[in-house]
Design a protein that fits this description.
18 helices; alpha/beta; Aspartate Aminotransferase, domain 1; Aspartate Aminotransferase, domain 2
């Protein structure tokens, strides 16, 4: 029976299956749960080797195209796109660590990542030690145990703008035969590519700068492809031991790509971190203009930060682009094309001044997001860092009068005018 001679209900379901082939200029969106197999052996081969596409949870052509794009931007060997930035962090950590293992992390990280380490991974038997002085390689080295499976840090920390000395900390990780995992969300590969400085794995919240438009969620894990079973196999037995049933190990099948292959085959699909192909498409579209946006945002941020630093209503500005920032020299050494566009400002007048600020801006949008083309503002102490103690917030540079700014691509003079009118209001509150 052909579709043309089938009855109405059958034609409604199947008539669109045959379509002409046409080479698209933009990445096609394969918005489908699964893919047809050619025959019995094709299906068996897919499940046996993982080659090709069978089900979108384990692979999709749109997603794969964007993975190749993002891996290239980070100078990585391969990438895995997942549903959110938080999923990217979780996938990367669960790829290298399991029950009884240990992670050493910077204390200056996104609160969601810190909560994952302290609350969730701890329940799975994975311990974490936090390093306060991330600029000191000896502090990282001293925290490593025989059970340590990774070092974790952010290239530019949220929210104090601490800048990681990637090469120095990567050398510590290499000496221990463990990967350095860097969350590069704030710097983006436009300004810094940690894999080029010795990091083993990079993660992003692709919802932020990579997409840029604030419309979708996504995350990505990028691997350097340098896993060496001879040097690091003792710290990654799940990659070098035979597979369940006696089959070849992950390392035997994938070589230097063993980590990212394990993440793709065993972690992300089983924990359900699959991204929508539509979201992948929109992330890929945004990434095409990443360099243009990030450089414009960085220029705007530097202009705004310099202006704020001169205001009598401002107590301090924590922006690595300013010579007054303790990590300015490190930032100048690593960041190419700008200093990023996320920073914090601490206002004189404390909480009342911060409240007047976030409620008085007209161009800045008050929301929990960063890396948008629009300029955004948030009060960390009452939102993203609310679960931390006063002492912990102070160590992170978050005070009652601190607001976090994410600078967009608007005209910087308009942003400064908006800040000028709102700072006048905060001065009146403080008085």
């Amino acid at each position: 029976m052909s579709i043309d001679t089938a009855r109405f209900a059958t034609r409604a379901v199947h008539a669109a299956r045959s379509q002409p082939s046409a080479p698209p200029r933009a990445t096609p969106i394969y918005l489908t749960a699964g893919f047809e197999f050619d025959d019995f052996d094709h299906a068996a081969d897919h499940f046996g080797t993982g080659n090709g596409f069978g089900y979108t949870r384990t692979g999709n052509p749109t997603v794969r195209a964007v993975e190749r794009q993002l891996a290239a931007l980070e100078s990585g060997a391969d990438a895995l796109l997942v549903a959110t930035g938080q999923a990217a962090v979780a996938t990367a950590l669960l790829t290298v660590a399991g029950a009884g293992d240990h992670i050493v992390s910077s204390a200056h990280i996104y609160e969601g990542s810190r909560g994952l380490l302290v609350d969730n991974l701890a329940r799975l038997g994975i311990e974490t030690t936090f390093v306060e002085d991330i600029a000191d390689p000896d502090a990282w080295r001293a925290a490593i145990r025989p059970s340590t499976r990774a070092l974790f840090a952010e290239s530019i920390a949220n929210a104090r703008n601490d800048v990681l000395d990637v090469s120095a900390i990567a050398a510590v990780a290499d000496a221990a035969a463990i990967p350095l995992i860097v969350d590069n969300t704030l710097a983006t590969p436009s300004l810094l590519r940690p894999l080029e400085h010795g990091a083993a794995i990079v993660v992003h919240s692709a919802s932020k700068f990579l997409a840029g438009h604030g419309s979708v969620l996504g995350g990505v894990v990028v691997d350097d492809g340098r896993f060496d079973p001879a040097l690091a196999g003792h710290n990654a037995p799940h990659l070098v031991l035979p597979a369940r049933g006696g089959g070849p190990s992950v390392a035997a099948r994938h070589g230097g790509l063993a980590r990212i292959a394990y993440a793709r085959e065993s972690v992300a699909p089983r924990f359900g971190a699959t991204p929508s192909p539509l979201n992948a498409f929109l992330i890929g579209q945004g990434a095409e203009t990443l360099r243009l946006r990030v450089r414009e945002q960085s220029r705007n941020a530097l202009a705004v930060a310099r202006w704020l630093a001169e205001s009598h209503a401002v107590e301090s500005v924590d922006y690595a682009g300013l010579p007054s920032h303790p990590d300015h020299a490190t930032a100048s050494r690593y960041l190419d094309g700008g200093f990023g566009s996320i920073f914090t400002v601490t206002l004189r007048g404390g909480l009342p001044a911060a409240r007047a600020f976030v409620e008085g801006v007209r161009i800045f949008t008050h929301m929990t997001h960063i890396g948008d083309v629009r300029s955004l503002v948030l009060h960390p102490a009452s939102t993203s860092h609310a679960s931390r103690s006063d002492e912990e917030r102070a160590r992170a540079g978050v005070h009652p009068g601190t607001v976090r700014l994410s600078i967009g691509i608007e005209d910087p003079d308009d942003l400064i005018e908006d800040l000028a009118q709102v700072l006048q209001r905060t001065k009146e509150v403080a008085a």
